[in-house]
Amino acid sequence: MSDLLQLKLMKDKTSGQIIQVENLTKKFGDFTAVNDVSFNVKKGEIFAFLGPNGAGKSTTIKMLTTLLASTSGKILIDGVSPIDNQTAARKAFGIVFQDPSLDDDLTAMENMELHAALYAVPVKEVAKRIQTLMEFVDLWDRRSSLVKTFSGGMKRRLEIARGLLHHPKILFLDEPTIGLDPQTRNHMWTYLHNANKQEGMTVFFTTHYMDEAEKNADRVVIIDSGKVMAEGTPKELMTKYKAKSLEDAFLQITGKEIRNEEAGALDQLRMRRGAWSGRRS
Amino acid sequence: MEREEILKQVQDDIMRTIYILWLRQVKKYFRSRSRIVGSLAQPLLYLLAFGYGFGAIFAKAGQGNYIQFLAPGIVAMSILFTAIFSGIEIIWDRQFGFLKETLVAPVPRLSIMLGRTAGGATVATFQGLVVLILSMFVGFRFTNYWALPLAILFMFLIALLFTALGTAIASTLDDMQGFQLIMNFLVMPIFFLSGALYPLKGLPKVMEYITKIDPMTYGIDGLRAALGGVAQFSVTTDLFALAVITGILLVVGSYLFEKIQV
After folding, report:
1. How many domains does chain A have?
2. Which of A2, A275, B181, B248 has the fewest CB within 10 Å, making it most exposed?
3. pTM, to two decimals
4. Which residues of B touch A (CB under 8 A)?
5. What is the pLDDT of residues A34-61, one digit of tens each?
6. Domain enclosing residue A89, as ranges
7. Is residue A179 part of a domain?
8. Which long-range contacts (CB under 8 A, 24 or more apart) does A27-34 make?
9. Residue A238's domain is classified under what CATH number?
10. Interface predicted TM-score (ipTM) of this complex, two decimals
Protein backbone atom coordinates (compact mmCIF):
# COMPACT_ATOMS: atom_id res chain seq x y z
CA MET A 1 0.00 0.00 0.00
CA SER A 2 2.64 2.46 1.04
CA ASP A 3 4.62 2.01 -2.17
CA LEU A 4 1.45 2.55 -4.15
CA LEU A 5 0.91 5.80 -2.31
CA GLN A 6 4.47 6.82 -2.93
CA LEU A 7 4.06 6.09 -6.61
CA LYS A 8 0.95 8.23 -6.72
CA LEU A 9 2.72 11.10 -4.98
CA MET A 10 5.59 10.84 -7.40
CA LYS A 11 3.19 10.92 -10.32
CA ASP A 12 1.39 13.96 -8.93
CA LYS A 13 4.66 15.75 -8.54
CA THR A 14 5.58 15.04 -12.12
CA SER A 15 2.11 15.58 -13.48
CA GLY A 16 2.12 17.37 -16.77
CA GLN A 17 5.64 16.16 -17.61
CA ILE A 18 5.74 12.65 -18.93
CA ILE A 19 9.38 12.76 -19.94
CA GLN A 20 11.92 14.66 -17.89
CA VAL A 21 15.56 14.85 -18.92
CA GLU A 22 18.10 16.70 -16.82
CA ASN A 23 21.77 17.21 -17.66
CA LEU A 24 21.87 14.00 -19.62
CA THR A 25 25.35 13.08 -20.86
CA LYS A 26 26.67 10.09 -22.75
CA LYS A 27 30.32 9.54 -23.53
CA PHE A 28 31.81 6.79 -25.68
CA GLY A 29 35.46 6.93 -24.68
CA ASP A 30 36.64 10.44 -25.53
CA PHE A 31 33.67 11.17 -27.72
CA THR A 32 30.73 12.96 -26.11
CA ALA A 33 27.63 11.96 -28.04
CA VAL A 34 25.15 13.69 -25.76
CA ASN A 35 26.36 16.67 -23.79
CA ASP A 36 24.42 18.00 -20.81
CA VAL A 37 21.02 17.81 -22.46
CA SER A 38 17.89 18.91 -20.58
CA PHE A 39 14.30 19.04 -21.79
CA ASN A 40 10.78 18.04 -20.82
CA VAL A 41 7.91 16.57 -22.74
CA LYS A 42 4.39 17.29 -21.57
CA LYS A 43 1.79 14.61 -21.26
CA GLY A 44 -0.31 14.38 -24.41
CA GLU A 45 2.12 16.39 -26.48
CA ILE A 46 3.36 15.65 -29.98
CA PHE A 47 7.01 16.35 -29.62
CA ALA A 48 9.67 16.51 -32.33
CA PHE A 49 13.29 15.88 -31.50
CA LEU A 50 15.29 17.33 -34.37
CA GLY A 51 18.91 17.56 -35.36
CA PRO A 52 21.31 16.83 -38.21
CA ASN A 53 22.94 13.42 -38.66
CA GLY A 54 25.15 12.50 -35.73
CA ALA A 55 23.58 15.12 -33.44
CA GLY A 56 22.86 12.55 -30.75
CA LYS A 57 19.17 11.91 -31.39
CA SER A 58 19.29 8.16 -31.56
CA THR A 59 21.68 7.93 -28.62
CA THR A 60 19.27 10.00 -26.55
CA ILE A 61 16.34 7.82 -27.59
CA LYS A 62 18.29 4.71 -26.66
CA MET A 63 18.86 6.12 -23.19
CA LEU A 64 15.21 7.12 -22.82
CA THR A 65 14.10 3.63 -23.85
CA THR A 66 16.38 1.64 -21.49
CA LEU A 67 18.64 0.36 -24.27
CA LEU A 68 21.70 2.30 -23.19
CA ALA A 69 22.98 3.48 -19.83
CA SER A 70 23.80 7.18 -19.49
CA THR A 71 27.17 8.48 -18.32
CA SER A 72 25.50 11.05 -16.07
CA GLY A 73 22.29 12.99 -15.68
CA LYS A 74 18.72 12.14 -14.80
CA ILE A 75 15.82 10.73 -16.83
CA LEU A 76 12.25 10.15 -15.73
CA ILE A 77 9.80 8.34 -18.02
CA ASP A 78 6.28 8.58 -16.64
CA GLY A 79 7.79 9.19 -13.23
CA VAL A 80 10.27 6.30 -13.22
CA SER A 81 13.93 6.09 -14.11
CA PRO A 82 14.63 3.92 -17.17
CA ILE A 83 17.99 3.08 -15.64
CA ASP A 84 16.96 1.99 -12.14
CA ASN A 85 13.52 0.66 -12.92
CA GLN A 86 13.70 -0.70 -16.43
CA THR A 87 10.63 -2.91 -16.51
CA ALA A 88 8.33 -0.19 -15.13
CA ALA A 89 9.70 2.35 -17.60
CA ARG A 90 9.27 -0.11 -20.48
CA LYS A 91 5.59 -0.46 -19.62
CA ALA A 92 5.08 3.21 -20.36
CA PHE A 93 6.31 3.38 -23.93
CA GLY A 94 6.34 1.79 -27.34
CA ILE A 95 8.97 2.41 -29.96
CA VAL A 96 9.40 2.27 -33.71
CA PHE A 97 13.12 2.02 -34.28
CA GLN A 98 15.09 3.81 -36.93
CA ASP A 99 16.48 0.58 -38.34
CA PRO A 100 14.51 -2.57 -38.99
CA SER A 101 13.65 -4.74 -36.01
CA LEU A 102 11.35 -7.36 -37.51
CA ASP A 103 12.05 -11.06 -37.64
CA ASP A 104 12.42 -11.77 -41.35
CA ASP A 105 11.88 -15.50 -40.94
CA LEU A 106 8.45 -15.06 -39.41
CA THR A 107 5.26 -13.98 -41.16
CA ALA A 108 3.80 -10.50 -40.72
CA MET A 109 1.08 -11.98 -38.51
CA GLU A 110 3.59 -13.85 -36.36
CA ASN A 111 5.60 -10.69 -35.85
CA MET A 112 2.46 -8.95 -34.63
CA GLU A 113 1.47 -11.84 -32.37
CA LEU A 114 4.91 -11.96 -30.85
CA HIS A 115 4.72 -8.26 -30.07
CA ALA A 116 1.25 -8.66 -28.56
CA ALA A 117 2.56 -11.34 -26.21
CA LEU A 118 5.68 -9.42 -25.23
CA TYR A 119 3.64 -6.31 -24.48
CA ALA A 120 0.86 -8.16 -22.68
CA VAL A 121 -1.94 -7.01 -24.97
CA PRO A 122 -5.12 -8.54 -23.45
CA VAL A 123 -5.60 -11.94 -25.11
CA LYS A 124 -9.21 -11.23 -26.06
CA GLU A 125 -8.27 -8.08 -27.95
CA VAL A 126 -5.22 -9.36 -29.79
CA ALA A 127 -6.94 -10.71 -32.92
CA LYS A 128 -9.15 -7.66 -33.37
CA ARG A 129 -6.39 -5.13 -32.85
CA ILE A 130 -4.00 -6.91 -35.17
CA GLN A 131 -6.59 -7.03 -37.93
CA THR A 132 -7.53 -3.37 -37.51
CA LEU A 133 -3.93 -2.20 -37.62
CA MET A 134 -2.87 -4.46 -40.46
CA GLU A 135 -5.82 -3.34 -42.52
CA PHE A 136 -4.89 0.19 -41.60
CA VAL A 137 -1.40 -0.20 -43.07
CA ASP A 138 -2.77 -2.24 -45.96
CA LEU A 139 -0.96 -5.45 -45.13
CA TRP A 140 -3.86 -7.65 -44.02
CA ASP A 141 -3.84 -9.54 -47.31
CA ARG A 142 -0.18 -10.28 -46.86
CA ARG A 143 -0.43 -11.39 -43.25
CA SER A 144 0.73 -14.94 -43.97
CA SER A 145 3.77 -13.94 -46.02
CA LEU A 146 7.22 -14.14 -44.55
CA VAL A 147 8.57 -10.69 -43.77
CA LYS A 148 11.69 -11.37 -45.84
CA THR A 149 9.51 -11.20 -48.96
CA PHE A 150 8.41 -7.64 -48.08
CA SER A 151 9.74 -4.44 -49.63
CA GLY A 152 11.35 -1.79 -47.46
CA GLY A 153 8.18 0.31 -47.39
CA MET A 154 6.03 -2.66 -46.41
CA LYS A 155 8.38 -3.54 -43.57
CA ARG A 156 8.23 0.04 -42.36
CA ARG A 157 4.43 -0.03 -42.39
CA LEU A 158 4.38 -3.28 -40.49
CA GLU A 159 6.70 -1.82 -37.87
CA ILE A 160 4.46 1.17 -37.42
CA ALA A 161 1.41 -1.05 -37.03
CA ARG A 162 3.34 -3.11 -34.52
CA GLY A 163 4.40 -0.05 -32.54
CA LEU A 164 0.75 0.98 -32.18
CA LEU A 165 -0.45 -2.46 -31.12
CA HIS A 166 -0.23 -2.03 -27.37
CA HIS A 167 -1.55 1.54 -26.95
CA PRO A 168 1.43 2.91 -25.05
CA LYS A 169 1.38 6.13 -23.03
CA ILE A 170 4.37 7.36 -24.97
CA LEU A 171 5.20 6.35 -28.50
CA PHE A 172 8.77 6.90 -29.66
CA LEU A 173 9.19 7.09 -33.42
CA ASP A 174 12.76 7.32 -34.65
CA GLU A 175 12.53 8.64 -38.21
CA PRO A 176 9.32 6.72 -38.83
CA THR A 177 8.49 8.09 -42.26
CA ILE A 178 11.73 7.25 -44.04
CA GLY A 179 10.87 5.34 -47.19
CA LEU A 180 7.13 5.86 -46.90
CA ASP A 181 5.06 7.28 -49.73
CA PRO A 182 3.03 10.45 -49.01
CA GLN A 183 -0.20 8.43 -48.78
CA THR A 184 1.08 6.18 -46.03
CA ARG A 185 2.77 9.07 -44.28
CA ASN A 186 -0.45 11.01 -44.27
CA HIS A 187 -2.38 8.00 -43.12
CA MET A 188 0.04 7.37 -40.29
CA TRP A 189 -0.16 10.91 -39.01
CA THR A 190 -3.95 10.86 -39.06
CA TYR A 191 -3.84 7.77 -36.88
CA LEU A 192 -1.28 9.29 -34.54
CA HIS A 193 -3.28 12.50 -34.13
CA ASN A 194 -6.35 10.42 -33.35
CA ALA A 195 -4.59 8.29 -30.74
CA ASN A 196 -3.11 11.47 -29.34
CA LYS A 197 -6.51 13.11 -28.96
CA GLN A 198 -8.55 10.10 -27.92
CA GLU A 199 -6.13 8.30 -25.63
CA GLY A 200 -3.84 11.17 -24.72
CA MET A 201 -0.91 9.25 -26.16
CA THR A 202 2.27 11.29 -26.11
CA VAL A 203 4.21 11.13 -29.37
CA PHE A 204 7.97 11.63 -29.39
CA PHE A 205 9.42 11.55 -32.88
CA THR A 206 12.52 12.40 -34.84
CA THR A 207 12.58 13.26 -38.50
CA HIS A 208 14.69 14.91 -41.14
CA TYR A 209 11.61 16.27 -42.90
CA MET A 210 11.17 19.72 -41.36
CA ASP A 211 7.77 20.22 -42.98
CA GLU A 212 6.61 17.09 -41.19
CA ALA A 213 7.73 18.49 -37.84
CA GLU A 214 6.27 21.92 -38.60
CA LYS A 215 2.93 20.40 -39.50
CA ASN A 216 2.57 17.84 -36.76
CA ALA A 217 4.59 18.82 -33.70
CA ASP A 218 3.22 20.83 -30.80
CA ARG A 219 6.75 21.54 -29.70
CA VAL A 220 10.26 20.85 -30.99
CA VAL A 221 13.73 20.62 -29.54
CA ILE A 222 16.68 21.01 -31.87
CA ILE A 223 19.98 19.46 -30.88
CA ASP A 224 23.35 19.56 -32.56
CA SER A 225 26.68 18.03 -31.58
CA GLY A 226 25.01 16.59 -28.50
CA LYS A 227 23.72 19.93 -27.20
CA VAL A 228 20.27 21.51 -27.12
CA MET A 229 20.35 24.48 -29.52
CA ALA A 230 16.72 25.62 -29.49
CA GLU A 231 13.36 24.76 -28.00
CA GLY A 232 9.78 25.91 -28.55
CA THR A 233 6.73 25.56 -30.74
CA PRO A 234 7.45 25.61 -34.49
CA LYS A 235 5.84 29.08 -34.63
CA GLU A 236 7.97 30.42 -31.80
CA LEU A 237 11.14 29.24 -33.47
CA MET A 238 10.15 30.68 -36.84
CA THR A 239 9.35 34.04 -35.26
CA LYS A 240 12.53 34.06 -33.21
CA TYR A 241 14.75 33.32 -36.20
CA LYS A 242 12.64 35.38 -38.60
CA ALA A 243 12.31 32.30 -40.79
CA LYS A 244 9.65 31.48 -43.37
CA SER A 245 9.61 27.83 -42.43
CA LEU A 246 10.90 25.53 -39.75
CA GLU A 247 13.47 24.31 -42.24
CA ASP A 248 14.90 27.84 -42.56
CA ALA A 249 15.02 28.19 -38.81
CA PHE A 250 16.65 24.75 -38.53
CA LEU A 251 19.34 25.66 -41.06
CA GLN A 252 20.04 28.95 -39.28
CA ILE A 253 20.43 27.14 -35.98
CA THR A 254 22.49 24.20 -37.15
CA GLY A 255 24.36 25.71 -40.10
CA LYS A 256 24.50 24.54 -43.68
CA GLU A 257 27.50 22.27 -43.42
CA ILE A 258 26.92 18.64 -44.32
CA ARG A 259 27.54 16.18 -41.51
CA ASN A 260 29.26 12.89 -41.64
CA GLU A 261 27.81 10.10 -39.70
CA GLU A 262 30.38 7.44 -39.07
CA ALA A 263 29.21 3.99 -39.92
CA GLY A 264 28.85 2.18 -36.66
CA ALA A 265 29.94 -1.38 -36.08
CA LEU A 266 26.34 -2.36 -36.67
CA ASP A 267 26.20 -0.92 -40.16
CA GLN A 268 29.39 -2.65 -41.10
CA LEU A 269 27.94 -5.88 -39.82
CA ARG A 270 24.84 -5.41 -41.86
CA MET A 271 27.00 -5.15 -44.93
CA ARG A 272 28.45 -8.53 -44.19
CA ARG A 273 24.99 -9.98 -43.93
CA GLY A 274 25.14 -11.42 -47.43
CA ALA A 275 28.19 -13.52 -46.74
CA TRP A 276 26.78 -14.94 -43.53
CA SER A 277 23.25 -15.57 -44.58
CA GLY A 278 24.60 -17.61 -47.46
CA ARG A 279 26.23 -19.87 -44.98
CA ARG A 280 23.26 -19.92 -42.72
CA SER A 281 20.47 -21.04 -44.93
CA MET B 1 -6.64 -9.72 -3.02
CA GLU B 2 -5.61 -7.01 -5.39
CA ARG B 3 -2.00 -7.90 -4.91
CA GLU B 4 -2.71 -11.53 -5.72
CA GLU B 5 -4.43 -10.59 -8.92
CA ILE B 6 -1.51 -8.46 -9.99
CA LEU B 7 0.90 -11.28 -9.18
CA LYS B 8 -1.20 -13.70 -11.20
CA GLN B 9 -1.21 -11.28 -14.11
CA VAL B 10 2.57 -10.91 -13.97
CA GLN B 11 2.95 -14.70 -13.92
CA ASP B 12 0.68 -15.07 -16.93
CA ASP B 13 2.63 -12.44 -18.83
CA ILE B 14 5.89 -14.21 -18.07
CA MET B 15 4.56 -17.59 -19.20
CA ARG B 16 3.17 -16.00 -22.34
CA THR B 17 6.57 -14.47 -23.13
CA ILE B 18 8.42 -17.72 -22.56
CA TYR B 19 5.93 -19.60 -24.73
CA ILE B 20 5.96 -17.18 -27.66
CA LEU B 21 9.76 -17.04 -27.79
CA TRP B 22 9.96 -20.82 -27.51
CA LEU B 23 7.50 -21.05 -30.39
CA ARG B 24 9.57 -18.62 -32.44
CA GLN B 25 12.71 -20.75 -32.15
CA VAL B 26 10.84 -23.93 -33.03
CA LYS B 27 9.04 -22.39 -36.02
CA LYS B 28 12.23 -20.89 -37.37
CA TYR B 29 13.97 -24.23 -37.09
CA PHE B 30 11.36 -26.21 -38.95
CA ARG B 31 11.19 -23.56 -41.64
CA SER B 32 14.87 -23.76 -42.49
CA ARG B 33 14.95 -27.18 -44.10
CA SER B 34 18.38 -26.59 -45.49
CA ARG B 35 19.64 -26.06 -41.97
CA ILE B 36 18.13 -29.34 -40.78
CA VAL B 37 19.55 -31.33 -43.67
CA GLY B 38 22.89 -29.57 -43.44
CA SER B 39 23.28 -30.30 -39.78
CA LEU B 40 22.45 -33.97 -40.27
CA ALA B 41 25.19 -34.49 -42.82
CA GLN B 42 28.02 -34.00 -40.35
CA PRO B 43 26.88 -36.53 -37.71
CA LEU B 44 26.17 -39.05 -40.44
CA LEU B 45 29.65 -38.59 -41.84
CA TYR B 46 31.17 -39.09 -38.39
CA LEU B 47 29.11 -42.22 -37.84
CA LEU B 48 30.19 -43.71 -41.15
CA ALA B 49 33.83 -42.64 -41.15
CA PHE B 50 34.64 -43.29 -37.51
CA GLY B 51 32.13 -46.06 -36.96
CA TYR B 52 33.30 -48.23 -39.82
CA GLY B 53 36.83 -46.87 -39.92
CA PHE B 54 37.76 -47.65 -36.32
CA GLY B 55 35.24 -50.44 -35.78
CA ALA B 56 37.67 -53.27 -36.46
CA ILE B 57 40.43 -51.89 -34.22
CA PHE B 58 37.95 -51.18 -31.44
CA ALA B 59 36.68 -54.75 -31.57
CA LYS B 60 40.24 -56.14 -31.65
CA ALA B 61 41.06 -54.16 -28.51
CA GLY B 62 38.28 -56.06 -26.83
CA GLN B 63 35.94 -53.09 -26.48
CA GLY B 64 33.04 -54.54 -28.43
CA ASN B 65 30.91 -52.91 -31.11
CA TYR B 66 32.19 -49.43 -31.91
CA ILE B 67 28.97 -48.15 -33.51
CA GLN B 68 27.18 -49.09 -30.31
CA PHE B 69 29.74 -47.04 -28.38
CA LEU B 70 29.98 -44.18 -30.82
CA ALA B 71 26.31 -43.45 -31.55
CA PRO B 72 25.48 -41.79 -28.19
CA GLY B 73 28.58 -39.61 -28.62
CA ILE B 74 27.54 -38.49 -32.08
CA VAL B 75 23.96 -37.85 -30.92
CA ALA B 76 25.39 -35.65 -28.17
CA MET B 77 27.68 -33.94 -30.66
CA SER B 78 24.80 -32.93 -32.90
CA ILE B 79 22.97 -31.62 -29.83
CA LEU B 80 26.07 -29.67 -28.78
CA PHE B 81 26.45 -27.97 -32.15
CA THR B 82 22.77 -27.18 -32.58
CA ALA B 83 22.45 -25.88 -29.02
CA ILE B 84 25.51 -23.62 -29.12
CA PHE B 85 24.32 -22.34 -32.46
CA SER B 86 20.85 -21.57 -31.08
CA GLY B 87 22.41 -19.56 -28.29
CA ILE B 88 24.71 -17.75 -30.68
CA GLU B 89 21.69 -16.73 -32.76
CA ILE B 90 21.37 -13.74 -30.44
CA ILE B 91 24.19 -12.18 -32.42
CA TRP B 92 22.16 -12.49 -35.61
CA ASP B 93 19.12 -11.05 -33.93
CA ARG B 94 21.28 -8.18 -32.76
CA GLN B 95 22.64 -7.69 -36.26
CA PHE B 96 19.24 -7.68 -37.93
CA GLY B 97 17.63 -5.54 -35.24
CA PHE B 98 15.10 -8.00 -33.87
CA LEU B 99 16.90 -8.22 -30.54
CA LYS B 100 15.98 -4.60 -29.74
CA GLU B 101 12.32 -5.42 -30.13
CA THR B 102 12.60 -7.98 -27.33
CA LEU B 103 14.96 -5.90 -25.19
CA VAL B 104 12.54 -2.99 -24.75
CA ALA B 105 9.58 -5.24 -23.98
CA PRO B 106 8.10 -4.63 -20.52
CA VAL B 107 8.66 -8.17 -19.31
CA PRO B 108 11.59 -9.38 -17.22
CA ARG B 109 14.50 -10.12 -19.52
CA LEU B 110 14.90 -13.36 -17.64
CA SER B 111 11.67 -14.61 -19.22
CA ILE B 112 12.94 -13.65 -22.67
CA MET B 113 16.18 -15.47 -22.07
CA LEU B 114 14.36 -18.53 -20.71
CA GLY B 115 11.98 -18.65 -23.68
CA ARG B 116 14.79 -18.45 -26.18
CA THR B 117 16.85 -21.00 -24.32
CA ALA B 118 13.96 -23.44 -23.95
CA GLY B 119 13.22 -23.09 -27.66
CA GLY B 120 16.85 -23.64 -28.63
CA ALA B 121 17.08 -26.65 -26.33
CA THR B 122 13.90 -28.17 -27.78
CA VAL B 123 15.24 -27.82 -31.29
CA ALA B 124 18.59 -29.33 -30.32
CA THR B 125 16.92 -32.26 -28.57
CA PHE B 126 14.84 -32.92 -31.66
CA GLN B 127 17.97 -32.82 -33.78
CA GLY B 128 19.54 -35.36 -31.42
CA LEU B 129 16.55 -37.67 -31.78
CA VAL B 130 16.81 -37.55 -35.56
CA VAL B 131 20.50 -38.45 -35.37
CA LEU B 132 19.64 -41.28 -33.00
CA ILE B 133 17.21 -42.68 -35.55
CA LEU B 134 19.79 -42.22 -38.32
CA SER B 135 22.34 -44.12 -36.28
CA MET B 136 20.03 -47.13 -36.28
CA PHE B 137 20.42 -47.31 -40.04
CA VAL B 138 24.17 -47.44 -39.56
CA GLY B 139 23.90 -50.34 -37.16
CA PHE B 140 23.09 -48.96 -33.73
CA ARG B 141 20.67 -51.14 -31.73
CA PHE B 142 18.57 -50.28 -28.69
CA THR B 143 19.02 -52.77 -25.91
CA ASN B 144 16.23 -51.41 -23.77
CA TYR B 145 13.42 -49.25 -25.10
CA TRP B 146 12.25 -48.47 -21.56
CA ALA B 147 15.33 -46.38 -21.00
CA LEU B 148 14.36 -44.04 -23.83
CA PRO B 149 12.75 -41.42 -21.53
CA LEU B 150 15.98 -41.30 -19.48
CA ALA B 151 17.96 -40.91 -22.70
CA ILE B 152 15.71 -38.05 -23.79
CA LEU B 153 16.14 -36.41 -20.40
CA PHE B 154 19.91 -36.52 -20.84
CA MET B 155 19.61 -35.19 -24.36
CA PHE B 156 17.46 -32.30 -23.17
CA LEU B 157 19.86 -31.47 -20.34
CA ILE B 158 22.81 -31.43 -22.73
CA ALA B 159 20.78 -29.20 -25.04
CA LEU B 160 19.77 -26.83 -22.26
CA LEU B 161 23.29 -26.60 -20.89
CA PHE B 162 24.88 -25.65 -24.19
CA THR B 163 22.10 -23.33 -25.31
CA ALA B 164 22.61 -21.44 -22.06
CA LEU B 165 26.35 -21.41 -22.69
CA GLY B 166 25.79 -20.09 -26.22
CA THR B 167 23.46 -17.42 -24.87
CA ALA B 168 25.99 -16.36 -22.25
CA ILE B 169 28.75 -16.05 -24.83
CA ALA B 170 26.60 -14.34 -27.45
CA SER B 171 25.39 -11.77 -24.91
CA THR B 172 28.93 -10.45 -24.66
CA LEU B 173 29.70 -10.42 -28.39
CA ASP B 174 28.79 -7.66 -30.83
CA ASP B 175 29.42 -9.48 -34.07
CA MET B 176 30.28 -12.77 -35.67
CA GLN B 177 34.02 -12.11 -35.61
CA GLY B 178 34.36 -14.23 -32.51
CA PHE B 179 32.38 -17.14 -33.90
CA GLN B 180 35.30 -19.06 -35.38
CA LEU B 181 37.18 -18.51 -32.14
CA ILE B 182 34.35 -20.06 -30.18
CA MET B 183 34.12 -23.02 -32.53
CA ASN B 184 37.83 -23.75 -32.46
CA PHE B 185 38.69 -22.99 -28.87
CA LEU B 186 35.52 -24.00 -27.10
CA VAL B 187 33.11 -26.19 -29.03
CA MET B 188 35.59 -28.51 -30.71
CA PRO B 189 37.60 -29.12 -27.50
CA ILE B 190 34.36 -29.73 -25.60
CA PHE B 191 33.50 -32.38 -28.15
CA PHE B 192 36.88 -34.06 -28.62
CA LEU B 193 37.73 -34.14 -24.91
CA SER B 194 34.43 -35.60 -23.77
CA GLY B 195 34.61 -39.30 -24.40
CA ALA B 196 32.31 -39.07 -27.40
CA LEU B 197 34.78 -40.91 -29.62
CA TYR B 198 36.87 -43.00 -27.23
CA PRO B 199 36.61 -44.57 -23.76
CA LEU B 200 38.03 -42.38 -21.01
CA LYS B 201 40.01 -45.22 -19.41
CA GLY B 202 43.78 -45.26 -19.34
CA LEU B 203 44.22 -41.66 -20.46
CA PRO B 204 47.25 -39.62 -19.44
CA LYS B 205 46.61 -37.81 -16.14
CA VAL B 206 46.34 -34.35 -17.67
CA MET B 207 43.80 -35.55 -20.23
CA GLU B 208 41.86 -37.27 -17.52
CA TYR B 209 41.50 -34.05 -15.51
CA ILE B 210 40.50 -32.10 -18.58
CA THR B 211 37.83 -34.61 -19.53
CA LYS B 212 36.48 -34.46 -16.00
CA ILE B 213 35.87 -30.71 -16.10
CA ASP B 214 34.21 -30.99 -19.50
CA PRO B 215 30.43 -30.95 -18.86
CA MET B 216 29.91 -32.85 -22.10
CA THR B 217 31.66 -35.86 -20.52
CA TYR B 218 28.81 -36.32 -18.07
CA GLY B 219 26.18 -35.81 -20.72
CA ILE B 220 27.66 -38.46 -22.98
CA ASP B 221 28.31 -40.84 -20.10
CA GLY B 222 24.71 -40.61 -18.95
CA LEU B 223 23.31 -40.87 -22.45
CA ARG B 224 25.49 -43.89 -23.21
CA ALA B 225 24.36 -45.60 -20.02
CA ALA B 226 20.71 -44.85 -20.79
CA LEU B 227 21.10 -46.27 -24.30
CA GLY B 228 22.47 -49.53 -22.97
CA GLY B 229 26.21 -48.90 -22.73
CA VAL B 230 28.48 -48.94 -19.73
CA ALA B 231 28.71 -45.80 -17.59
CA GLN B 232 32.10 -44.52 -16.50
CA PHE B 233 30.52 -42.69 -13.59
CA SER B 234 27.04 -43.43 -12.32
CA VAL B 235 23.85 -42.13 -13.90
CA THR B 236 23.14 -40.22 -10.70
CA THR B 237 26.54 -38.53 -10.79
CA ASP B 238 25.98 -37.63 -14.43
CA LEU B 239 22.54 -36.20 -13.79
CA PHE B 240 23.76 -34.24 -10.80
CA ALA B 241 26.78 -32.80 -12.61
CA LEU B 242 24.70 -31.80 -15.63
CA ALA B 243 21.95 -30.24 -13.55
CA VAL B 244 24.38 -28.18 -11.47
CA ILE B 245 26.36 -26.90 -14.45
CA THR B 246 23.15 -26.16 -16.38
CA GLY B 247 21.83 -24.21 -13.39
CA ILE B 248 25.01 -22.17 -13.14
CA LEU B 249 25.09 -21.43 -16.86
CA LEU B 250 21.43 -20.39 -16.86
CA VAL B 251 22.15 -17.92 -14.05
CA VAL B 252 25.28 -16.57 -15.75
CA GLY B 253 23.51 -16.45 -19.12
CA SER B 254 20.53 -14.53 -17.80
CA TYR B 255 22.80 -12.13 -15.91
CA LEU B 256 24.75 -11.37 -19.09
CA PHE B 257 21.57 -11.18 -21.16
CA GLU B 258 20.13 -8.74 -18.63
CA LYS B 259 23.15 -6.48 -19.16
CA ILE B 260 22.96 -6.29 -22.96
CA GLN B 261 23.01 -2.76 -24.33
CA VAL B 262 22.42 -1.90 -27.94
Report:
1. 1
2. A2
3. 0.84
4. 9, 13, 16-17, 19-21, 24, 27-28, 31-32, 34-35, 92-93, 95-108, 112, 174-176, 261-262
5. 999 999 999 999 999 999 988 889 899 9
6. 18-102+167-255
7. yes
8. A27/A71, A32/A226, A33/A59, A33/A226, A34/A59, A34/A60, A34/A63, A34/A70, A34/A226
9. 3.40.50.300
10. 0.87
